[in-house]
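Weekend entry, working from home. Most of the wet-lab plans are on hold until the incubator is repaired, so I used the time to fold the two sequences that have been sitting in the queue since the last round of cloning. Logging both here for the record. First:
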Amino acid sequence: MNSQTPQLVKVGDVQWGEAQALGLIAGPCVIEGEEHALRHARVLRELAGEFEVPFVFKSSYDKANRTSIHSYRGPGLVQGLKILRTVREEAGVPVLTDVHSPEEAEAAGEIVDVLQIPAFLCRQTDLLIAAARTGKVVNIKKGQFLAPWDMQTAIQKVVESGNPKVMVTERGASFGYNNLVSDPRSIAVLRRLGYPVVFDATHSVQLPGGQGTQSGGQREFVPTLARAAVAAGAHAVFMEVHEDPGAAPSDGPNMIPLDELRPLLRQLVDLSRLVRSWGDLR
């Protein structure tokens, strides 16, 4: 595979990508209310500022692929976007959320800074085109069922729809039943596609459906995988965080406790600076 010229993507006022500071996408898995979202966004903003890390707040208005029909999905499109608008304005941070249909992409594109294409939907052409047409940054999560080089066609669907503002996220590959594995080679392959590469450190330790009616997770391995991804050249890290993961209505087993994020972020920033000092990794 031939390497493409690295593209920078502007999120808010900051460029993300090659030779730039390590980026952070973080927040609770699903929106639990306005005050809850604001509280997390403000803590994360201050923490990111402490380490001079470009930051995007992430939380979903709808978790459409929950294991059980009885699982909490979120406040829904209208109320969720209203809360994200408040976070964006009052916390003063860029925001990201998942979209699941062309109609949702159009509505969310009016409010958020980054539209995220869920891993299970990364090949949905109409969704990718609709996200592209909003003109917002589009973060495409690599499906657990795809090889990293297969993401080139997903990226092309966005770029050839007139929007070069693309990021691509690695989140592990299916490995037998109820398990994922993260291959550091995937980071190198995705970098060659020429767009900022994000590593999803918390969903990569998920055990899909591993608890019967819900997914399990192994959050103790988040630091290990996050450090490996940054060392391999990831431009940003995606981590879902929560002040009390045990009480979270979604993805609690793989989320990082909010008060444990600082030491990990310090390690990742230091490691990223060292890696960037080596020059071009392609």
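Second, folded right after the first finished:
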Amino acid sequence: MAEFYTQLEHNNIRCTLCPHQCMISPQQYGECGVRLNEGGILQSMTYGRISALHADPIEKKPLYHYFPGSVILSVGSLGCNLHCEFCQNHHISQSGYREHLTREMEPEKLIDLAIREEENIGIAFTYNEPLMSYEYVMEVGPLAKEQGLKNVMISNGYINPQPLDKLLDVIDCFNIDLKSFSDDFYKKYTGGNLSPVLNTLKKIRASGQHLEITFLVVPGLNDDEESFGLMLHWIADNLGKQTVLHLSRYFPQYKMDNPPTSVQKLTDFYRIANEHLEYVYIGNVELSEGRDTYCPACKQKLIERNGYKTEIPGLKFDGSCLHCGHQIAIL
């Protein structure tokens, strides 16, 4: 059985997990395609069902300031509560519930695999939208913590405050996709709204859990410099200048055939973002800039990245700069 719903007349229910607040008729699914009204009871059809399981470099999430150079067991399922026309994992996020795309993985089995994986620091809930497997995450998470494992979530951040509050007790680290700083963009290209995502970001920051942000730059849709500048100001003012921002290159996927983001646009945005934030990176493209970490105080190189190979020549174990002692926003 799923959490966060209200029973209505005639066996209808209202799902309250995310801002869609779906009213779901009997034997119908919510917007996510995986939470089912079964006779007036909300069922999470993806509980214990996984579509992907891989041991990944943590930098692949992307997470650059959370145990850099480590490995994390990454698990995905099915479904998403947004419908991004440029979704790069649409085969599992937009499929709805399809049992043949998954296999069963009980929480204890997943924990056992995570423990046995060499040099693994924890479990990353990723690939599709992990909030759609909320109950599974909430069961796996505490078990992982008991074994000294970290819980990481890669999410669109489209969740209501009450379930987020419970999630913050379980998840140690988030990377949230901020898809645009325009509500019109969210409505037209994702089927959601901007403000719930901003509220999620502020709640995560206030909780003290580790936070990084990914911004996928889509040509002609969210690459306006004025809007990008407003987003940077908001991040700096509300989340802090030490917030890690990943600028990711778009490639044609799913329903969108716009050409890939130009390298020039990525480097332009990288330089603009560096005027507002201390830690900015470029992803999905091999460039000489935008991949390494530098001390914002003395400008010395602290972490060197070549693909997913990570060297850490300039950091002390406590996360401070080896050269000047400046404390870096890193675990």
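Plan for Monday: verify the second prediction. The helical segments are 90-93, 107-116, 134-146, 161-167, 183-189, 195-207, 225-238, 263-273.
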